[in-house]
Prior knowledge:
Helix content is 42%, strand content 20%. The chain is α/β, with parallel strands linked by helices and 584 residues long. Helix 2 packs antiparallel against helix 4 and helix 9 (326-342) packs antiparallel against helix 10 (403-413).
Amino acid sequence: MPEAEHGLSEVLLEVAQTLTANLDLSAVLPMILDQLARLVDYDSASIMLLENDLLRPAAQRSVFPVNSTPLAVHPQELAHVQLALTTHQPVLIEDTARDTRWRHRPGSDAIRCWLGVPLIVDDQVVGMLNISHRTPGHFGPISVQTAGAFAGFAAIALNNAALHQQLHDELAERSRIEAELREERAHLTVRVAEQTSALRVANQEMVQAARMKDEFMAAMSHELHTPLNTIIAMTDVLREGAYGVLNERQQRALTTVAASSRRLLSLISDVLDVARIESGKLQLLAQEVDVDHLCRVALAQCGAVDKKQRVSYRLDPAATTLIADERRLRQILGNLLSNAVKFTAEGGAIGLEVQVEDERDCLAFTVWDTGIGIDDGDLHRLFRPFAQLDGSLSRRYEGTGLGLTIVHRLVAMHGGSLAVTSRRDEGSHFVVRVPRRAISETIETSLAPGGGFGAFVLILTGLEHASDLVACALRARGQRVEVMLQGGESIPITEHPDLIVVNSHLLARNLLQTLHNLRRSEMLNTAPIVVLAALHLPGDREAALNAGAAAYFVKPLSHQEFDHLLAISYAGFSVDAPMRVHNY
Length: 584
């Protein structure tokens, strides 16, 4: 018997390697049925995939003539099918003539023994293996166990093939868009004399966005070809006890495998978040957030207890609730606290403090640690996608280099800011400021031009909806506001602006280039420029002012800073200013 089990294990591993080696869905489907025939003797088998509330046949293999395409079925109409899908376990009907669960359907008269095995990916049922034989009692316990183990590999193979197809479609769409961009740029070169430097700024932002997408596609392509499929498949099979009861040593090995799986899945999730944010597809939900509950959940999940670190938590009694996206706030605090734990030695200390800043009408979340700290010269590198301060192959700390990139972009989308101070070997302080009403469903889209008869304010922003709050506040004070999404569709500017607001989430180097380009624009070079920073690092304020900015504020604005902003706009405002038409 042990030799037989060993032989079966070798065949299963060989089958798994065969299935996961192919990413073509049209080839994987029949291959699954062919490989199943090596392990389980059957007359007929089909792969049924779950689409909404229907099981639809995707592939079929049978010794009987197939006269017509099998029909899609509702699982709830067939008790034996519904049982397999809801219990996540194989269901065996030894004799269809005697088992009351079996429901005869056209073409099922030859079936006397039936086995249904769910296909499961990440605890979600995606389909079912439908296996049958003409002989009652044909499938025994070994067949059920073998089919269950095989289904784990089959589900992973189907999922990988679906991901590959999705990636292929995205690459094809990207190629189409790039071809259109090349054609458009060729057309624009004919009118290069009419171009303004402001349009070149938008072009540069488009190149930057394209580069980010390139990095995203490259990372996704690489990670999808890692051993994630084998790790997940073998972990699932072993956890289900397909090879018997596990000893302590095997359990430790499984724990390591599971941790690796979670790390890779976390990587893919981070990459997708960055892609959604940069493309403007990530939408924030307006929710009333319980601040104390939010903080305690984040602290409980950060892992400080496992490293025997001291944890400090201080909450301003006035910090009760705020309107924001709770899931994204939890992601912000979770990333910052996890970093604090990661870069602080065992026995060190981390902390979370929440204060109300009435002047800014915001909450300030401070995450601090007594860890390794960071030199001032390295702080800007923290927020570059995929950047690691320790880039060596043997670096001590794992990570993708995306956590802080996601944090500061999510903070910017909430209309807030992230400030960092740190000293080598002394620790770091990350301060996240979020308006008490960071999201409002009543705010009109930031790209809609504002009415009013006051000064004309042009807002340049790199993230969609990041300027909603300031644009709404300016319009409420009678200003005429237009918002331009850098790298997005051009907006016609009908006159010289009285004020340009650069609502920036950029690193200092990119921000200074933006200021330089604005000063070179014939249409925009006379307007004062105010920088609203969503990412504030030591030296950024001085650099922006030296580059020509009239003022530099860290969001959210205090009442005094907002009044200063209005004063700057009115200083350049003239009732008799001539109107000019210019395409920007």
